[in-house]
Amino acid sequence: MTGKPIPEEVVQIASDIKNMRIRGAGRIARAGALALRIAAEKYTGQNLDDFKEYIRIVADYVVKTRPTAVSLPNAVSYVVSPLLRADSIRDVEEAKRMIIENAEKFMDYSERAVERIAEIGSRLLRDGDTVLTHCNSQVVVSVIKAAVKQGKSVEVIATETRPLFQGHITIKMLLDAGVDAVTLVPDSAVRSVIKDVDKVIVGADTVTANGAVVNKVGTSLIALIARERGIDFYVATETYKFSPYTVWGELVVIEERTPTEVLPEDVIAKNPYLKVFNPSFDVTPPYLVTAIITEIGLIPPQASLLVLEELYGRGAIHDTIQTVEEE
Ligand SMILES: O=C(COP(=O)(O)O)[C@H](O)[C@H](O)COP(=O)(O)O
């Protein structure tokens, strides 16, 4: 067992993910890859087995920060699995290089994927469209920005996204980018404004093998409202948010956050019989999703398993599950 401590910078990244100073599934994934790169750079020993053990411990530590977005374990697995499986690596220097290169490749891929989704997604938007979005998704904001950059006039309705108000981040990002037709509404006003909406676009934390989409709590209600009105409901997401683990029946853990995000601590303390339930995400079933906009094109949600097979191959998906079980 390695005696090497987890570097301070990695501890800081993990704490930032946990406390949501780093948030949003894409950013979390890139932060996870960065943490591994830093861990590899900081390692000082010469024993290859010890280095592998150390990387395994760091990987596990980073993955445990937030449970729902599969982008995090997928990113971590992309960076570390080739090393843990390889028997051709000769020494620590080579192993370090492998981790650093994989981390950089992932971060680079992730950024290019967002750009590609913006390009594809923006084609779906027509001049004069009003788009409703929920929470704060970097990918969705990029789609809207790309459409506006093409000269299309796009109005945006953003939900506040209680209890943590990620909608405020969304409107700031849009206004800073020069998208000026932006309206902020309380989450509960979605059914009141849906008559003005042409398309709903949200991000994703996880897409399951059967095409269900896990995203910020409230997303599934918006999907239902969109369906009631016959409005297209799109999900914009990189393919590393598709979960290979769900192929074999593993359920997505929905993060439950502290009640103090919903009610002040003193009110909770004064009312010992009061319960507060604060789930951070919910599940939108595939039948409510028009299409998933990914960097490899538009995917009907029902084709999610095919995407996973294309990405990992059947055998590889099985290996991934085994690696996770072993850990
Ligand atoms: O649900 C959230 C964020 O939740 P939280 O604020 O709890 O992290 C976002 O819609 C997805 O993560 C996609 O974001 P992106 O497109 O930026 O990856």
From TrEMBL:
Residues that hold substrate according to the record: R23, G24, A25, G26, R66, N215, K216, K241
SUPFAM superfamilies named among the record's database cross-references: NagB/RpiA/CoA transferase-like
Active site: C135, D205
Keywords: Carbohydrate metabolism, Isomerase
Enzyme nomenclature, EC number: 5.3.1.29
Domain of life according to the entry: Archaea
GO molecular-function term, one example from the UniProt record: ribose 1,5-bisphosphate isomerase activity
Chemical reaction(s) catalysed: alpha-D-ribose 1,5-bisphosphate = D-ribulose 1,5-bisphosphate
Gene3D superfamilies: translation initiation factor eif-2b, domain 1, Translation initiation factor eif-2b, domain 2
InterPro entries: IF-2B-related (IPR000649), IF_2B-like_C (IPR042529), Initiation_fac_2B_a/b/d (IPR011559), M1Pi_N (IPR027363), NagB/RpiA_transferase-like (IPR037171), R15Pi (IPR005250)
Catalytic EC class: isomerase
Recorded family membership: Belongs to the eIF-2B alpha/beta/delta subunits family. R15P isomerase subfamily.
Function of the protein: Catalyzes the isomerization of ribose 1,5-bisphosphate (R15P) to ribulose 1,5-bisphosphate (RuBP), the CO(2) acceptor and substrate for RubisCO. Functions in an archaeal AMP degradation pathway, together with AMP phosphorylase and RubisCO.
Further remarks about this protein from its record: Reaction proceeds via a cis-phosphoenolate intermediate.
Name by which UniProt lists this protein: Ribose 1,5-bisphosphate isomerase
Organism: Infirmifilum lucidum
Lineage, opening ranks: Archaea, Thermoproteota, Thermoprotei, Thermofilales, Thermofilaceae
